[in-house]
Amino acid sequence: MKNKKLLFVASPGGHLVQLGLIAECFDDVESVIVSTYKEKPAFLSGDDYRRVDDFSRDNPHLAFKVFMQCFRILRREHPDLVVTTGAAPGLIMVIVGRLLRVRCVWVDSIANSKKLSLSGRIASKLGVSVVSQWKEVAENSNLIYRGRVI
After folding, report:
1. pLDDT tens digits, residue range 30-52?
2. Cα–Cα distance between 114 and 6 in angstroms, integer?
3. Which among 116, 119, 117, 77 has a CA at the least distance from the CA of 97?
4. pLDDT the model gives residue 111
5. A single GO BP annotation from the record (predicted)?
6. Sequence ranges of the domains in the chain
7. In what order do the strands lie in the sheet with 48-51?
8. Who's near 66: CB < 8 A, 6+ residues apart?
9. What is d(CA 129, CA 146) in angstroms, rounded to the nearest whole number?
10. Which of 19, 68, 102, 142 has a CB 3.0–4.6 Å from the CB of 97, allowing a cystine?
C-alpha cells in the first residue's frame, strides 16, 4: 500500500485495543488514529492522532457535533481508507466517509459473538465492507470473515 494513507477510528476500551492491533499491521503506511482520548494512548502506533467527542445511544444529541468533527478530519487528512472497530464515533466516521466517497471497512468487535452490532448493521447498509470476527456471525449475516484480531 505504498503512498496510501489510512485513517483508523475507534471508541475507547476494547474497540481501541482491537484497532491498535490492526493498525500495527500497517506500520509501513502513513496513518492517522482517531479516538476520544485527549491524547494518543501510548500503546497505539500511527503517525498522527486526532480526537473526537464520544457519544452513544444515551446521548444522541452529540451526534451532529461528532459528525462535524469527523467531516473536518476527513477533509484535512484525505485518507484512502477508513478502518473502524466501532462504536458510535466510528459509525459517524464511516457515514461521513461514504458521503465523501472514501472507502471504509467496519471490523465488528470481538465482543459481538452472536450477532452483528447495530452500528455494524447500519454500516453494512451504507455500502461499507463489514467484517465479523466470528465465522458463524459472518455466515449468518452474509459478511466477510478473516479470523479474529485477538
Report:
1. 999 999 999 999 988 777 999 99
2. 29
3. 77
4. 85
5. dolichol-linked oligosaccharide biosynthetic process
6. 16-145
7. 48-51, 30-35, 5-10, 81-86, 103-107, 129-132, 144-145
8. 52, 53, 55, 88, 89, 92
9. 12
10. 102
* DSSP code for 30: E
Does the predicted model carry a pTM greater than 0.85? Answer: yes
Give me 116's grid cell. 452483528
- Phi/psi for 144 (5° steps) reads -90, 140
Is the CATH number 3.90.226.10 carried by domain 16-145?
Answer: no
The pairs formed by 124-132 with CB atoms below 8 angstroms and a separation of 24 or more are 126/94, 126/95, 126/98, 127/98, 128/94, 128/98, 128/104, 129/103, 129/104, 129/105, 130/105, 130/106, 131/105, 131/106, 131/107, 132/108
Whole-Å CA distances, 144 to 40, 133, 138, 141: 30, 9, 6, 9
The half-sphere exposure of 4 on its side-chain side, counting CA atoms within 13 A, is 13
Reported as a single tens digit per residue, the pLDDT across 125-145 is: 999 999 999 999 999 998 989
Phi/psi zone of residue 101: left (φ > 0), alpha (ψ -120 to 50 degrees), beta? Answer: left
